[in-house]
Each structure stands twice: as structure tokens, then as C-alpha cells.
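note to self: dont lose this again. the chain is below, predicted strucutre after it. 466 aa total, dont forget to put it in the shared folder this time
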Amino acid sequence: MTAPAQRQIALLVSVIGAMIVALDGTILLMAQPRIQRDLGASVAQIQWTSTGYLVAVAALLVIAGRLGDRYGHPRLLFVGVLGFGAASAGIALAPAVGWVIVLRAVQGGFAAFLQPATLALLRLAYPADRLGTPIAIRTSAIAVAAGSGPLLGGVLVAHLGWRAVFWVNVPLAFVIAVLALAVRTPAPQRAEPPRLNLTSAGLLTVALAILVHALADVPARGWTAAPTLLEFLAVIGVATVLTRHERRTTHALVPPAVARSVPVMASMAILLFVSAGLFGALFKATFYLQDVLRLGPLASGLRVLPLTVLMVLGAPAAVTALRRYGARRTAIAGTVLVVVGIAGLSRLGPAGSWMAMAAAFGTLGAGFATVMVTATGTVVGDAPPGYAGVVGGLKQTAMNIGPSLGIAVAASMSRTPVPAFDSALLILAAIAVLGLLPASLLPSGSLAHPAGRGIASKADPRQPSR
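---
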């Protein structure tokens, strides 16, 4: 099979793999109330169907990426997607909510294997200076999947019941697994295969699991509750031990060349701050639409539709801007758009016009697409192919912790619906503003040349030119 054909297959697998995870994340929202009624679950148990999944994903992403670098990303993707589909089938057959919670955590673990591989395949299949378009296609596909999730979930739950929401994943997972078997990517040349440092892996798993659990429980316990503070202190302690161990070991979980890469670390910070602002704002906006404007789920989804549309349209536009103006100016522009969009939502009262709301959501979508394409392109492009998995895992970790932080801030600010000039939205806008600092550290030139050659040369001088 020719190289262009292999690239198309790799892109297809990457897109569908990213879509199934994004779709699963939003389609579940419409199923949870029915799960609670049918299985007699408590509110806390229903919350754990999401929390358990998030904890498992966040804890294993970087480790999964490292395993992909060692054993091959097509192989990890194959295992991840088959496990994801099997766990989905198990949830659809679950007789009690306890089984749903456990299997959702298992599903999250396999999703962690799947997500870094979908990004790493692109880095292995495409030269660094040609990653913009594939990443834009992937970003647009994620927006379509996430945006259509609530609508599809509502239809499935209404006509077929909540179990149908999980059965949907099974045929999709099978298709991705078959396609993954056809993917052939060049094997990066390395002096020796990267070893998995079990001590670092264990410490990172514990730190991320505690952090995501603490953030998920903030709305119920508050930021200053003793359990919350103890968990944050535990995260700091474990992270300190992990950092010291990584500096001393000869087989670091995050290679020094990656950890010292300013573009990679800056891109992680941008994604964390901007995704926190966006998802926190969407959380508050959902209550505003349904509790203040008294709109149903479908009508609420239609109000948010401009966000999805502008994400889809904004991704290819971001590629053009990235090539013309460079990562720094493009990321700054995208971050500013997100901040303006959140601030616009904060000014909407019950008498606010539909057009003003559409403009705010559209601005959010355009800004987030720009940030996603820029940060993802910089992260993946600045990494040599031999470290594509661990870098993809870091990127996805930022994209899991950011929303958890934003929702924790939004939910803990007040238990009432979103009023005009809501202080929670202004705080979320301020969090997104923090993304401007790391954005200013990105490369200022256009991406006409491979972004990864600097870090690649530091990481592995035997890495072939691409």
C-alpha cells in the first residue's frame, strides 16, 4: 500500500477513534437520569458513573502513551478500542448501578489507551510540517461528535432506552479495530526501546487520580473542606516525590527532551486554562438555559449549536492562520476569543436576545477551535515520532484536568442558576486569561518548517529526517 493511502487510513482511524470518545462523553448526559430511575441509583452513584471514568482516564493517559511508544501505537489503539467496546457492551447489560460504575472505570482505562494513540498515529504518518490539516480535520470531527452527542442521546434514550447509548459504541469500536490492523506507520529509529519506569508510572497514576477525584468532589464538599485540602496536599506530596524521582532515574516517564520543551509545556498550559474556562462556562450555561429560560434539552442544545458550528468551521481557518501568523499570535487570538465569549455569556440576562447568545457561543467555538488546533499542532509537531505517544498522553491529560477544574469552579460558586453578570463566569474568564501567558511563549514564526526538529535532535540524534 502506498504512503498516501497509509496516511489516509491513519487519519481515518485517528478521526473515528477521537470521535467515539468525544461522543461517549456527551451522549451519556442524556442517559444518566434514566439510569438513575431504572436502576434505583442515588445521585452520588450517578455522579460516580462519570467520576470513575474521568479518574481512570486521567490516571493512565501518559502511561498509555509511553506504552505506545514502546510497543507500537496501532497495537495499543487496537487493544484500547476493543476494550472500550467490550466495556460498553458490559455496561449495556449491567443489572445494577454498581456494575455500571465499575465498568465505566474500566471503559475509561481503555479510553486512555485509545486517545494518545489517535494523536501519535498522525505524528508517525505525517511529516511535522504537514500536520495542520489532519489535526484540523480531527478537531472538527471531535466538535461534531461532542455537539451531536446530546441530540443523539436524547433520541436513543427516548425510543430505545438508556442501554442503547452504550450499544452504539460496539459496532464503532469493531470498525476502528479492523482499520487499526491495516495501519502501517514507520518505526522511529532509537538506540533502545523506551522502558516504562514502574515507579514513576505508579506515582503519576496516584497523583492524577487523587487530583481528578478531588476536583470532582469540590461541588459537594467545597474548596476548603478538610477532605478536599487533604487530597490537594496529597497531590502536592506525590508530585514532589515524582519530580525528584524523574530527575534521578535514567528512564524517565516523561523524557527530559519533552519536559524541557517550552512549546510542549506551554501548549499543555494553554489547553488546561482555556478548556477550564470553556467547560466551566458551558456547565453554567446549561443551568441558565434550562432553569432560567425554561428550555428543554433539545432547545438548549440548539442554542449551543453555534459553538459546534464555529468549531467545525474555525479549525481549518486556524490552520491557515497558523501557517501565516505563527503559533504565538494564533494561540493568543484564540485565547482572547474564548475570554470574550465567556464574558459575553456573563452579560446575558433573561431578556437577552437569541442573537447575542448565538454570538457568544459562536465566539467560544471559534476561539476554542483555534486554541485546539494551535496547541495540538505544536505539541504533536514539536515531538519526535519516538515520543509521540507520551506527548499525546500529556496533551490529553491537560484536556481532562482542565474541564474538571472549570466545572469544579463553576459548580462551587453557587447552587443557583446563572444570573446576569454572573461572578462565576467572570472567574472562569479570568482562568482562561491565564492562557495568554503560556501562549506568549510559543514560537512566533510561521510553521513553514517542521516544528519537531529542535526537540527531535535533542532527544535522538539518530532520528531520521522527515
